[in-house]
Amino acid sequence: PKRKLNIHPTPNNQSMNELRKDYLTDKWVIIASVRAKRPHDFKTPKEENNAANCFFCPGKEYTTPPEIYRVEKDSKWIIRVIPNKFPAVIPYGVSEIKTDNSFYTYASAYGRHEIVIETNEHGREIEDLPVDHIKKILRTFIFRIDELMKDPLIDYVSVFKNKGKSAGASIAHTHSQIIAYNNIPSAIKNELESSYRYYVLNKKCAFCDIISKEKNSHRRVLKTKHTIAFTPYASRFPFEIWLFPKRHVAGIGELNEDELLDFSASLKKILTKLKEIGNVPYNILFHSMTDKSANFHFHIEILPRLTVWAGFELETGTIINPVSPEDAAKFYRNEM
Amino acid sequence: PKRKLNIHPTPNNQSMNELRKDYLTDKWVIIASVRAKRPHDFKTPKEENNAANCFFCPGKEYTTPPEIYRVEKDSKWIIRVIPNKFPAVIPYGVSEIKTDNSFYTYASAYGRHEIVIETNEHGREIEDLPVDHIKKILRTFIFRIDELMKDPLIDYVSVFKNKGKSAGASIAHTHSQIIAYNNIPSAIKNELESSYRYYVLNKKCAFCDIISKEKNSHRRVLKTKHTIAFTPYASRFPFEIWLFPKRHVAGIGELNEDELLDFSASLKKILTKLKEIGNVPYNILFHSMTDKSANFHFHIEILPRLTVWAGFELETGTIINPVSPEDAAKFYRNEM
Questions:
Q1: d(CA B238, CA A18)
Q2: Which of A16, A191, B72, B224 is deepest in the core (most CB within 10 A)?
Q3: Interface touch B315/A9, C-beta < 8 Å
Q4: Chain center to CA of B45
Q5: What was the pLDDT predicted at B3?
Q6: Domain A11-46+185-332 sits in CATH 2.102.10.10
Q7: Structure confidence by residue, pLDDT tens digits, A264-303
Q8: What is the ipTM of this complex?
């Protein structure tokens, strides 16, 4: 009968791969210790980063679409928000989603696609900037999210960063992107539904409970006055790490000045450490709600793009990760 | 009130991007015609492909783990199945899935990970092989799926091909992979649940109905005696294409000799055409069930890996695709 004889001792102390599920959602990974790699195995060659033809540098403002917003210092811009020249969504068309003949569900890809140029200094990365400057970048995101959500046709504002070609960046000058559009993304919907189910059963925020478990686990990385960082149990990427504010807030906009400054300092610490591996391409995802009553806990996910998702990942949704989060946490804690 | 004023005429006949949902599941894409590219924009540099140090070539059999199966011609192997030297899953450990403390769901990554070396001729790709040889490869998959499913601890057998580095291939000699493991993947579960819901409502196979719509749509590509190919409405990748047998079968193992030969010929035609773009990296996914009564219709998905999923895709699950499936179908139909 199925599921009876299920213990097969491993020969020769061969290390085991482990199948793991995300804390809340139905996302699975295989932590492939059998293929385990050390941090230095992931050293990535430095990418070309020439300031000469950079559209995002001071003096080239005329090459970009008209500016939306800027932060100044000594009457020069230090952060600049512009529309994306090749937008994924535009504020025209029919935003309402319709279904024809059972199978064809569509709408115009309605919304706004913006670029946040994070510094006027070409070649500096987030981790090279002063903590106070990073805080100003986060404030810029908060301001833009608020503005964009004023359009009643916008359902969700996605804030993310692509660094390096393998992470989808086509321009090297450090920047983030904002896509506000007419759909609640299925990945976010799944996360919200799962945390809602947890709330109904436990009358507590799922993420608050995860934090209280992980802050003392083998995956703990960082504890500051207002933040907690850990490598998630079902990490999809080598050295994946999540950063949370301790206080329960659904969105980044609810953080106060102290919390935002501390959050910026923690982000800087994490990215500085990550840089030790080499020129790591990564994405930063902002999981943030604007509805304060949402069953959600704001956090960011930092995803180093050191592996390629192949046929198995695309077919099954199960992601093979050659670095266990426990090893990744040791790296971040300077224990390896 | 929300959703009222939702028609915003596009200025200057600017082409529109479209938000689209998959036929059945909650997977969304943005077809970004604004960023549209022509086939030749995707030309990919040829990768190094040196036979000298190839572990998969004849004469190097001693470098691989012990052979599992072979197909011979003139007493030489022409197809060879071997265990993966760096397996994602191994047939040891505790296969049963458990949950500790609400959040930690895990099992050993139990199963078998095999490589199918598709020809003894280094440098030849699937599309270079005779149709009858391709059929023998498919027969090999069928044989291995049947064998692997005999282990009661195996829940699903994933068959897939990675071609090119951007598609996750580390060895150039043409091969596919088989991962049999102790979980029904969430992506497959979603597909099965959606097609089951459709069946309950309509008493018909969802995929049979999709085929009957798409065979005459702008996305049609190929009709043969036993097969249909089209570019899916919510294509995630440029030039993504799906190939179905016309007859309703849940798994590849149910196809008869004629159907399998015709299916092989159609696969060869599609890959031959795709090659015109250049050295396209791609994955082939086999969506195939072993339970004949499953609400499913066997098909393969060919996914050219010509774009990188960036922060937006990873955060939202919404995939930006710069080539519309209607344009991709024109390419396959030799109309562009």
A1: 34
A2: A191
A3: no
A4: 23
A5: 44
A6: no
A7: 999 999 999 999 999 999 999 999 999 998 899 999 999 9
A8: 0.95
Cβ contact, residue pair A161, B311, below 8 Å:
yes
**DSSP of A247-309:** S--SSGGG--HHHHHHHHHHHHHHHHHHHTTSS--EEEEEE--S-TTSS---EEEEEE--S--
Pick the CATH number of A66-99+110-181 from 3.30.930.10, 3.40.30.10, 3.40.50.12650, 3.30.428.10: 3.30.428.10
Return d(Cα A199, Cα A203) in angstroms, integer: 5
- pLDDT tens digits, B279-299: 999 999 999 999 998 899 999
B297 classed as catalytic: no
Q: Indicate the DSSP class of residue A106.
A: E
Pick from A34, A151, A156 the residue to mutate for testing the B interface (most B CBs within 10 Å).
A34
Nearest residue, CB atoms, B90 vs list A17, A110, A318: A17
Structure tokens at A154: 């916008």
Chain B residues whose CB is inside 8 A of the A1 CB are 152
- State which CATH number among 3.40.50.620, 3.20.20.140, 3.30.428.10, 1.25.40.10 fits the domain covering B63-181: 3.30.428.10
Contacts of A160 in chain B (CB under 8 A): 310-312, 314-315
Q: Which band of pLDDT confidence, cut at 50, 70 and 90, is reported for residue B257?
A: very high
Is B13's pLDDT higher than 90? no
